[in-house]
Specification:
about 240 residues, two-stranded parallel ribbon, seven-stranded mixed beta sheet, Spore Coat Polysaccharide Biosynthesis Protein SpsA, Chain A, about 15% strand
Amino acid sequence: MRPTFSIVVPVYNEAEFLPEAVPTLIEQMESIGEPYRVFLVENGSTDGTAAVAQQVAENHPVTVLSLDAADYGAAMRHGFLAGDGDWVVNFDIDYFSADFLKRVLALDNVDLVIASKRDPGSEDRRPPLRRFATWVFNLLLRTVLDSKVSDTHGMKAFSRDLVSTLTPSVLSRQDLFDTELVIRAERAGYRIEEVPVVVEEMRVTRSSLVKRVPRTINGLLRIRRTLADEGQVVGRRS
């Protein structure tokens, strides 16, 4: 049976956290009552994450994929191309929600559903610095890429057609694979819906904002140049 959801979760050096996180994710997925498969995409780990992932995946609809290099975006791309569900969803190992997927199921005639941390109905429980970083990133999206979406990081559900059509064209890796995919979907006129979300991560973030800022700015400028060279225009399918 074709799954309703293919859940793509990049993991890097998560050997200690996986035994806690994966059963919680499985429990939430089972509560939805829809067929699913989880893809844990281990990438460049040095702590035995791949072996631990195989252990926690036993007896569950979980597939473990491995890449040699540590690259979040490349892992997500690999998982997206492997997923065969009606919806391909990106979750992080410390940030996922069955309630978000229930919202996806309740929508009609939509190609991309974004759990937006910037939605007026959202409740963002992260530290102030993290909330400010999201605000700045949204400003950059609007300024650099003329985007109308309010968020591109976090939980998202993409239709199978959108993934099959657009993923092969995405050039960004690391932090901005999903951002470029969302922007391409927006400019291609796919139907986008943003929904509110409660933002509460399971642990303190491990990524450094200081290191990500210059990489993100350069990446957004690179996306703009690429899309301009391709003659992309902004628009949404009505």
